[in-house]
Amino acid sequence: MTVIPDHPMKTRIRPVLGCTLVALGPTFLLLSACSGGGDSAAKTKAAELAAGPSCVSRDTTPVSLAVREFLKTVSPTAQRYLSAAGTDSAVPEDGFKVLQDKGPTYFYGGDDAAKAKIREKLASVGPYASLLVVFRGKTEAENGNRVTVRLGGHYIGGEHEGKVAPGKAYEVQCDTTGWKIATTTPEPGA
């Protein structure tokens, strides 16, 4: 026991403090043991950020980048967009979101009656260039860090009826900054 001069509780301070620390010691150990995972998770997250982006084949970013680039290069510039609903040519969800961001977007597919209904709708809204974007597939290489997305299309209705938007293959790759368009190649026969 330590005696502290000129203190009203000269002999009681240290024992009370000591008892408190002894009583709370296991609680502190338990809390620090439980929070160790959070600290470890934070360190792991920091290491991932320092290492740069992780591009995985599950990532749909390559499709959206390819669709965005395709829309920049088509002529005439489309003002409305269509996707072949219910087919393997339908633009995947991330690409469809890009279409929606660019302008009014419609599902075009089904039987002839459904297609006629969409054509009527397009005609009633006005003579705007309407592009049916056709997804022709994607292939992955380099453990999913290089993805080739193939797109094409044609115009529906109006003065550009039937005009083809030439098909292109977009090679999208992951580098230290994320996904980027590496090359664009015209599709054979397009």
Order of helices and strands: HHEHEHEEEE
> How would a crystallographer describe the biggest sheet?
6 strands, mixed
Helix content: 40-55%
Count of strand segments = 6
Unreliable runs, pLDDT <50, ≥5 residues? 15-22, 26-37, 47-52
Query: Which structural class matches the secondary elements?
Result: alpha/beta
Chain-averaged pLDDT: 79
Quick summary:
The chain is built from four helices and six strands. It has a six-stranded mixed beta sheet with strand order 2-1-3-4-5-6, covered by helices on one side.
Describe this entry's structure for a reader.
The chain has 190 residues and is of the alpha/beta class. 40% of the residues lie in helices and 26% in strands. The protein contains 4 helices and 6 strands, in the order ααβαβαββββ. Strands 2-1-3-4-5-6 form a 6-stranded mixed β-sheet, covered by helices on one side. Helix 3 (93-102) links the parallel strand 1 and strand 2 (105-107). The chain is globular and about 85 Å long.
